[in-house]
Amino acid sequence: MSDPVNRLAGAIESSPSPFHASATAAEALRTAGFIELDPAARWSHEAATGPAFVRRDGSLVAWTENRGRPTDGVRLIGAHTDSPGLRVRPNPDHGRLGWRQISVEVYGGALWNSWLDRDLRLAGRIAVERADGVESILVDSVHAVARIPQLAIHLDREVNSGGLRLDPQTHLTPVWGLGTPRSGDVARLLADLAEVPVGSVRSWDVGFVDAQAPARIGPDAELLASGRLDDLLCVWAGVEAIAAATAVNDAPVALLVLVDHEEVGSETATGAGGNLVLNVLERRHDALGATRADLLTALAGSVCLSADVAHAVHPNYPERHDPDHQILAGSGPAVKFNANARYATTAVGAAEFQRCAARVGVSVQHYSHRSDIPCGSTIGPLTAAGLGVETVDVGAPILSMHSARELVATADIDSLLSSFTAWMTTPLGRQA
């Protein structure tokens, strides 16, 4: 697993849900010498000094050892653990005409058609009642359990010329068996996966993901096709970068923030729009014996890299991209700009990232969206607003963003990791 592409593929395979993604990141950090702190306990000075991390549901905040003053600035990378997909409803047992189905709700801005005729794996967490309370247990079917069959062309002769039209309420319900649906069937499946009595299962946060494993493709294996590259590619690069920073003596304090629910607006307890990150930072500073004023001073001198994937120019649709900002696959990470603050990049933030990338020989591209097509966003604006830190939005170019299966150049995986590691380890310079 020394090859970065193989390590990324392994991390994606072990992260079929945001809850699995935070668990995968936690395991990698523990291996790198980080200590996991209990979010419900008071932290000691030694624990808060780091390297340490705290995890809640699908989110995680980690930091390297504090070798300086509590007022020193930090280098931060933020990414999100969730991806668009299909989430299982509370009353999921559904079916008709001899087919057993599972009722789902679309999560985020998924490309609906990409979920058709694809073998689907079920994963997430369940809430189990114990004698002393409720326990959260991760579940993963590993193998495919369902599929959404597309209507045959003989029954929709105009589909290729007129376009595919899907109703998310009626056309995206997966099939998973034959017969009459029975109440409790899905609960029994989840209980079996968790190896608990079905009667103890009280609720769940589970969804479907592509069951096909990540795969290198192309004559020279220069491409990686995979589900959930948005944004597990940046999650993985952030984890590896902060782990590498622990071995660099003159590196500033590095902070990694992985949050859930970016694809649905981030306004949750564990999203970028919530207070999780600031609460963790305040508690860490308190355990270090520092004041809130010390924390605010540190944030004023900090820089944040908001990490999310970027749109590579599509060879079949070049007209959908701004002609002066066409991002090429295999040509390095893209700094994302938007005059209306859909991305949080400032001139200073962009220059700082380019400075770090140049240290390791990574070239940087500049992305700007077409003005006549609505632009997406990232956790960058929310992070910049919530923490008051200088921010730059950066991502690796991919195709098929928000599809059940996306595509990235392996060269961009290498350059993203190199530039993120440089970002975490470069001493902070003058920003004004």
How is this fold's topology laid out?
Layout: H1 4-13, H2 18-31, E1 35-37, H3 45-49, E2 52-56, E3 59-63, E4 74-80, E5 85-96, E6 99-107, E7 120-130, E8 133-146, H4 159-162, E9 175-178, H5 185-194, E10 201-210, E11 215-217, E12 223-226, H6 229-245, E13 253-259, H7 276-287, H8 292-300, E14 303-307, E15 310-311, E16 334-337, H9 347-359, E17 365-368, H10 380-387, E18 390-395, E19 397-399, E20 406-409, H11 410-425
Parallel strand pairs: 1-2, 4-13, 4-14, 14-18, 15-19, 16-17
Antiparallel strand pairs: 2-3, 3-13, 5-6, 5-10, 6-9, 7-8, 7-10, 11-12, 12-20, 16-18, 19-20
Helix pairs in contact: 2-6, 6-11, 9-11
Q: How would you describe the overall organization of this protein?
A:
By secondary structure, the protein is of the alpha/beta class. It folds into 2 domains: 4-83 and 227-425, Aminopeptidase (3-Layer(aba) Sandwich); 85-210, Aminopeptidase i, Domain 2 (Roll), CATH 2.30.250.10. It is built from 11 helices and 20 strands. The chain has helices at 4-13, 18-31, 45-49, 159-162, 185-194, 229-245, 276-287, 292-300, 347-359, 380-387, 410-425, and strands at residues 35-37, 52-56, 59-63, 74-80, 85-96, 99-107, 120-130, 133-146, 175-178, 201-210, 215-217, 223-226, 253-259, 303-307, 310-311, 334-337, 365-368, 390-395, 397-399, 406-409. The strands form 3 sheets. The protein has a 9-stranded mixed beta sheet with strand order 1-2-3-13-4-14-18-16-17, with helices on both faces. Helix 3 links the parallel strand 1 and strand 2 (52-56). Helix 9 packs across helix 11. The radius of gyration is 22 Å and the shape is globular. The two termini are 42 Å apart.
